Amino acid sequence: MILGDKKMGRPTDNPKDTSLKVRLDKASAEKLDECAKELDVSKAEVVRRGIHKVHDDLKK
After folding, report:
1. Which residues contact 41 (CB under 8 A, 6 or more apart)?
2. Residues 5-30 pLDDT 10s
3. CA–CA gap between residue 42 and residue 46 (Å, rounded)
4. Is the terminal CB of the chain with fewer CB neighbours within 10 Å at N or C?
5. 13 phi and psi, to 5 degrees?
6. Is the pTM of this model over 0.85?
């Protein structure tokens, strides 16, 4: 492999190209971990679902 060649990842219809850093208190971090474990998804997926849920509630 030549230096500078990018490794091809898994193709996706919905690339995640925006990064976000957040600071959480201990209770929120524990809730996030619990949700991710219970739903068997990543913490990032829990956050994405939360964003959609709050956004949907704004329309009501």
Report:
1. 49
2. 777 778 888 888 899 999 999 999 99
3. 7
4. C
5. -90, -10
6. no
